[in-house]
């Protein structure tokens, strides 16, 4: 995953170039309080000051201030929390406009909406399946041509002895493909790098990663993944499918493409974060389903990564999208392979059928499986640690696009060279039987009728290699071949993950694991062959151990739990392995977590994303909302001067996104009470349409602002700078009553952090108002306030907030 | 399911007898307001009156009052909502004691807790698996003896012509078993009747069904299910496993048995609703897993029925329990069948392996499958409608235990007679091949070397019948046999469900569906045999159609979605059928829902349980918290007189369970402000331990009340009547500060119903305080306030509350 190879981030280069039109950063509350105080001194803001009881926080904040004063070139660091990520708003903004619309809608209206949700899910499934087909077919064709060329070349030069020319041919071919793939990613859409799974995880968690669900990203991703797989890198095309599915979902569900400037005027109801997220979940599930032929696994993946609230109908719809996706893939590929109607290709990666005797296992094998799980966990942690250092190095030194392209090309050349060398020096010749399934058997220095077994592993697309490790007859590989292959492929895959190319880590992990798993099985069979009391066919079937090894290695790297178990079970097409795979994944996770986090979590942390986990850290009960919240809060009056609003929105140093709306009892000195919450995006739309009290009075025929106006602007609201407000208009007043959310969730100051966290996470909130017992606003809790506490080695730690 | 055959309910007979010691009914807020007003007139209560703004509700309430004035003998009716069900409290009561404990706990402490959670889940899995084994083995043994006896008898009398004696023998045997099963259920534990799935659904939804997770219930359930299956009723032993698993979980996780008066002093931390519910979810999943060999299906079942908030670690633990359960069952049964180590019995019902050619399907078969789904949906709805009428009849006329036992015995006798008659008049003789898998082939009037095919369907445990319908060679059954079998079994099963015996509806549904599905397949094959262009082995394999038919029928009856798909897929051991099964279940659900609800939902509604669905009714946006809430609310002062508290708790006419705690600024006329929430159960413990301010002063050495005291009393808190408070003590004061939840969730009065609903459901609340903008209590929303709105045929309907 090359998506963090730049100092800035997954996406910030484009932010710099397009800062005006894009993603106003979230920066709420207590950071840089000097500024907000100056502003409040200016008198144009209504601000509720700190209470005397928050002295503790005052101290903490001033400590933080000094840290925040550090120069801007702080590198990405997992001890920081970036302030540039906005949150998504999964809480419906139930303002008057919304409620009126909902009340107008009849029961039939809701039924129609429900039906269109199903239609959208069906479309998502079909399109995701088609994209998977497209990738698969193009990769097969291009890789076929490439391997055929090289094979002929090698065969020509094996006799005459000019094999270095073959090597050069191979390297140049790989080189070219990878260069194209890296250039489009690094120069046109850096967010398309890597597998996209961390980004989708963040999106489903509620963090807005800019441009992650754009059409352009999808196009670059699809082309990029084709280039990198054909380019012979140690990558898979499965991870990117999940991202692709998510993009498809986000596009289809909105009924328009902002990139193509086409609006089909359908599905307008779905133009808000809540609905869009549900569809993106379905898209991610459809992607998993297409990648692995695992519809249930896809649903569980979406839930494991995204769901904060389980809803039966939603899950059922997600499952529908998954099923349709795998079915479409299956159907189209069956036509492509000229067996129309034979639905035997459920996913991009096909583990092949595990049937007959090889599927059974015995009770005494379970400890062996658990041991393999531990090995997988350890190797996975090693992989992650190495990749972590590599990523840090990349963040520091390889952050310019041209450097990234050069690194990718270097990796491509090295991969080709290493592969060639390994094949060249390998002596593992195997007879080429009539039932052999090799696509490109390389004879090389083997006798006639034999082929080089190392070449099966290297001179092949990774999917085919995995399948041959699972299913080839015992004896097809000798242990030395497997050992060398594991070693080289481990380092190649580790180096590759994080390059500026679109590619996934699932298949390389499976391949590494399958290789050492098969090795494990062979060694086991050889140690016990003396006794020979076991039926060898069952107990030391190397294919079975290859499968367990693959599960262990993948689990050790990505640390997924239930969903990965189900994906593996579905990909093998057999539920018998359920228990061993679960035990192996569990062991791998426990062992791996002891050393290092999962690969995706590492990359999320290195991006300083304010990611909310399932629960508040265990030992955080001593913290309350008072310590956690940001204060003072910039509040707006229910009827507020336009000038004030423009000033607040233009204040780049604070850049708040949500504003509690308060109401002051006229001619009394009582403190103002909370009466609602309004978002920056809503204010922007109001300013753009000049919804001012004075104008409404003068022009009675003026069209009333509707929900449609907000939906049309979603999700790319214009920045405040693009809105022109004249000096006269600045003196007008705006009435926010109709547009604010009149019932924001609130908590008292004494609420403990776990309680705040639970409310925030379960409801997918973006802003949570902290109120005192007079219903006055005393603070605001946002995502970063909660995400910054985490359990480190020395108890509860607080991450620093940084404007990276 | 006989659990509603009494006028009162699933459980109320025992409530009447043990009213003092058990389940003080929930009766909160607005019902019978005259009483509470009289009380408040008496001056002993602090009550916040209605605000002038709630006139609308005043009107509604007075309408309701007249309805509530109806005589008490209103029968159970799906238009009523019973007030006798308490809610469970899934929101942690974060009072000072709890926070102190959490803050004292180190990180290691939390780790240990986490480990013990895993241990508990492992134990739940093992015990559930063992119970499943026990049921399976006992049923096999007893059924084996029974069928052997009858077979010998029939064979003896076939020649001599006294078959009526065989019939009598059969009927008497069935009769006896069913009588025993019905007596223990009807007289000792009525809640053990039926499959228990509706009860577990309610429990996981948050409704406290008395005695549903007691040890006694488990014992009766296990014995009952053995009796009813051996008694030859049209029932399965799978549904009850889910209930059994839940009971095991509730027992193990508490580390004690109140019934056995044993406290192991372990797992004390888990003695609260939140933790217990999580374990019960795991237990239900383990039950599904043991029943069907479907660990993933089990997890999904738990989530579909119970989860309000998905948590990765929790789900992973539930999956662990599921896996262990199916593994234990598998392992023990492998020993029992003398193939130790061969793990091929994953569940109680084994669909057998679908392998080889029979598993594939062609694209053009999909419309056929969908048509079968529609048939299944229609037949399922018919089943449900018939059962609904039958249940209404039972509620009205068959509510005394002895009548229930007699009905069960009648059904047993009729079942035996009908089966016998069908076999007797059947002419369907099939050759008894060497590979035949019949356990008890009945020759009857067939030629030597042949057996009666109708007997395979009837003269067998239902599980075996299902398997033979799935896997017997094409031609084993003739269409007439299948048609007659479907018809009779449909009505028998429909009559049986709802009897006072422990039994499930899964297997009968599968059996009916498999029979007509196979019939469908045979007819299909015969219509197309003219053309013969298809390879018949694949396309009209009757076993495949039997499977699809079984899925359609089961889906049409129970209307489960994702979980049922996965259960079916796992039970067949083959993922190939995923798509057709999903399409079939989807069609069955859509068609079935058009006519009637699912069977479990019907029974839940007939019990008037305040069941919360996933979302508020679609057209409920015009309702706000103001209309929904109960008011006036009985509030307590933070420092309250003991006498007042005792009086409030003793008031049987209101019987509130949660009390907002308010604080009045001394010597001011400002209204009292909300400062916490305290539960009846907590007050009871406080009164029992005489935690009075005066006593604390006089006896300084007095032990401080700890969380442990509350946990020891959980979940069977004594009734207020059992607590003696002297006249002197009545004058003492109680300080609630330490014990109340100081940060209850609140909503403003303007909050829309869907918003209130979402908060309530997502966080699993029991009481939600409605506060005005001065933070004064104006109302309280409880489960029944939300559950009473539902979408009927004429838009939004409101259920009547009734003290049934």
Full CATH superfamily name of the largest domain in chain A = Clc chloride channel
Total count of domains of chain A: 3
CATH topology descriptor of the largest domain in chain A: Clc chloride channel
Task: Going across the biggest sheet of chain A, name each strand in turn.
Answer: 1-9-11-12
pLDDT < 50 runs, ≥5 residues of chain A? 1-9, 11-75, 531-538
* Residues in helices of chain A, as a percent range: 55-70%
- What is the rounded distance between the termini of chain A? 20 Å
Question: Major sheet of chain A, described briefly?
Answer: 4 strands, mixed
Secondary structural class of chain A: alpha+beta
Helix tally of chain A? 31
CATH C-level name of the largest domain in chain A: Mainly Alpha
Query: Largest inter-chain interface?
Result: A-B, 86 and 86 residues
CATH architecture of the largest domain in chain A: Orthogonal Bundle
Could you report the average pLDDT of chain A, rounded to the nearest whole number?
Answer: 80
Structure description:
Chains A, B: Residues 740-798 form the CBS domain. Chains A, B: Keywords: CBS domain, Chloride, Ion transport, Membrane, Repeat, Transmembrane, Transmembrane helix, Transport. Chains A, B: Residues 1-12, 25-39 have a biased composition (Polar residues). Chains A, B: Belongs to the chloride channel (TC 2.A.49) family. 2 copies of one chain form a homodimer. By secondary structure, chain A is an alpha+beta fold. Chain A has 3 domains: 121-337, Clc chloride channel; 357-529 and 537-607, Clc chloride channel, CATH 1.10.3080.10; 625-802, CBS-domain (Roll). Chain A has 31 helices and 19 strands. Chain A has a 4-stranded mixed beta sheet. Chain A has a 3-stranded mixed beta sheet with strand order 14-15-16. Chain A is elongated, with a radius of gyration of 29 Å. The model of chain A is unreliable at 1-9, 11-75 and 531-538 (pLDDT under 50). At the A-B interface, helix 4, helix 11, helix 12, helix 21 and helix 22 of A face helix 4, helix 11, helix 12, helix 21 and helix 22 of B.
